[in-house]
Amino acid sequence: MPGPLRDYAVDQWTSRDGLPHNSIRDLAQTPDGYLWFATWEGLVRYDGLEFVVYDRSTSTPALLDNGVGTLYVDPTGALWFSDSRGNVGRRDAGGAWRVWSAAEEGWPQVLVHAMVMDAQGRLWLLFEGRGLGALHADGRFEYTEPPPGVPLALSYPHMAVGQDGRIWIGGLGGLLVREPDGRLHRAPAALGLAPGLAWPYRAPDGAIWLVAGDSVHRIEGAAAPRRYRIPGQGDFTAMLQDRHGALWLGSESRGLLRIGARGVETPPTDAARPPGRIVGLLEDAEGSVWAGANGGLFRLRETLFQRLTAHDGLSGDYARALLEDRDGTLWIGGASGLDRHLPDGHLAPFALQPGVPPSVLSLAQDRDGDVWVGAYGGRVFRMRDGVVVDRLQGFPGHIRAIEATPDGAVWIATHSGPVRLVDGRVDTPRVPGLPTGLVTSLAWIDDALWVGSVEGASVLEGGRVRHVALPAGARTVFAFRRIGDAVWMATDRGLHRVRGNAVAPVGLAQGLPVDTVFQIVPDRIGNAWITSNRGMLRARMQDLDAVADGRLATLPLERYDEIDGMSSAQGNGSSSPSAILRADGSVWMATARGISGVDPQRWSSYRKRLPPVPRIDAVRLDGEPLDWRDGQQLEGGARISVSFVGLSFLMSDRIRFRTRLEGLDARWIEHGRQRSVEFVGLPPGDYVLQVEAAHPEGEWSAHPAAWHFSVAPRWWQRHSVQLALAVLALLAPALLYGVRLRRYRRANDRLSHLVDERTRTLQRQTEQLLEADREKTELLGRLQAQAETFERQALEDALTGLPNRRSFDAALAREFARAHRKGQPLCLMILDVDRFKTVNDQYSHVVGDAVLRQVGELLMGACRATDIAARIGGEEFALILVDTSPDEAHVVYARLRDAFARRTDWGGVPGLRITISAGSTRIDPLDTAPAQLVRRADMALYRAKSAGRDQLCDG
Prior knowledge:
Its EC number is 2.7.7.65. InterPro entries: Diguanylate_Cyclase (IPR050469), GGDEF_dom (IPR000160), Ig-like_fold (IPR013783), Nucleotide_cyclase (IPR029787), Reg_prop (IPR011110), Rev_trsase/Diguanyl_cyclase (IPR043128), WD40/YVTN_repeat-like_dom_sf (IPR015943), Y_Y_Y (IPR011123). The chain is α+β, with helices and mostly antiparallel strands.
């Protein structure tokens, strides 16, 4: 059973995201995994990251009209599409296209706004205002004029074929039916449909549903009993039965709703709402529901996280502390006061005091079951059975932590160190070494009080204080957690494990993507959930221990944020508990927008989802598009670039790829999220390129995408030529010896008479030997030049003349080591040409290559002699800025950005403007590998792209 609709995430795409038009007429998914959309500006294919548009300007296929009306996937997996001029197209399961011209075929040249295929393989076409047609499998066309009294001219774009062969046709004036014998008539009045607009829908189980007015009916024999009535929603315009049996209904102007086991549900109130009419609904292979509307493309997907926000009844969105008491009530403290979420689901504010509620920073429950609340301004409240029984105030600063101990004492964190309450009396311990400043966390572990503050970590045990030595840089401790035989601390410099007297860090150098973490919460299946300002992190506890032990260099982990359903990626610290494990096993954290929770068992099922389907998307030969196919032969020495995709629409940007080139590679080579691979100068032979895809920590594809091809040898690499040269080399000395011997004998016989001629012969021989030596020297020179060319090609990008990725990796490793050795600054900037695919699609790849060359020229012009510019893939470049501070890197980017803005004829196209986004980072003394700089720069580039492009973000 799926989760409640309120926990679904709603994603939206418009023309700003690559769609050619905001009105989505129809949606379909073909068996190969691609999604297809019908728009007024062409047919659109979507792979999860990019929209590919087919229209009148494309060559394969060349559409006859851009206004695509409807889509249909037949039982063979072929995609059918129609347009506003009556033309019909088909893309078969093998990718071959065919288009039928209405003018040439002789059928009405008007919009085909619905298509459906019957059991005989006839494709039925509903012509807007002009009747019904059928395209037979043998190519014959059958046309049905609207009979008298049947308002077929007022048809509505929905048709369905029942299992009995009847065709149900939507109409503005009521439902129409075509009988198997060809009779066309109005739907029987006995069906009991409301007058006016009515239309059919065939569910995946073969059932026919009818929508009329505010009611939904289901055909059962000769009757159509009403199953649902949903008043107040206006006209329904689209319907879908999902894999769980729930019905989704789209309306003319009221958005979307779902009818299922939980009754009638609507999407979360804070989510994007499809504007205008919802024209079509589709459930994809992964269970997400797509809605095509007049205002764009929308997707509703079940997310990993649940959430509670002000829209659900919280007093305010800024949450700070969480506590589940012994009765199962969840207490939520935040900037707007205190709320309680009862086990029955009721959520309501709790008044701690009359008037304005205090800002709550901490929560705790003592041995007697009383709930303690620490608040802003040094106030503490104690509650018993839902009633405030004590209000204490006057504590220094704000109360960021409260800890109740088994002996009945309550410790309170203040701005002047920890204090203790015993039987209502305040006791300020005077123990040497105990922090006297701001206390940020408290924990009672093994009969000792652990105190976290802006001065580090201390342990009060047996009347004495011992300090926990934190590695350099760590200062503030936000939380302690006993896990196994160790205590884990969350600090402003990552996690630290304390075991005995040994402290082991797990921070940026070990793979954490952030410095500051607020809490670590172990679940019941071996995971550790870590909260931060950049979402929730998940790692396996055994991996955390392995990294802390030094047995594992880099921590494998996943990071979750709003894409995964979190209300906000910004977690909150300096309050406690800011994350908890509830009795049902779920983990919840306080964020800047309510609270977010994850069920680890549900996470386990998410991990088991099928891996993405890999597809080879495009091949380029020496930078030019190749109409690639299996078994083709390529010229030797060419540069082969292959792009690929993983067809999954859930977090498509996190898909990992790996390739193996059989005939060259014996093992798989992982590429991370890189979606292309390049080969230069492959030796002659037969090859198979295999591509596999995987979700983060998921399984690799069971069936890799494969491309079989061969590389032809160059003339000097052919076996016949090489054999001839070898034979000639073996015979040459013998032949030369024979010639010279015969000449010697003839010369000896005529010695007395031919002295002068003998001299001339010897001179000619000398000249020949000199000429042969000269030719040999020239041949050696050419071979040496060719070897230098090959070496240069291995390190140089052929298009821009910049160093390639291999050269860049070597240079970065060299400069990284030099910067560490000499203590010099080093900055890395990764740059990406904005919307480069649009340039290729709109102006051709020739213009795109010219733009890339010009980008390379600008980068070389912006570099100093010590800097290194490189092209590291596609439209992505990098700058290694030696002995450069972040401020100087910003100056370099500003100079580049200004140079880009001044050029208005990129690629020789007047008025064409190109912008570039960049992510920059500097070397950190704790960095142990260049890959850490690349990762931070990549993340910063991703933020620059997400924030609107044409800008630089630091990482």
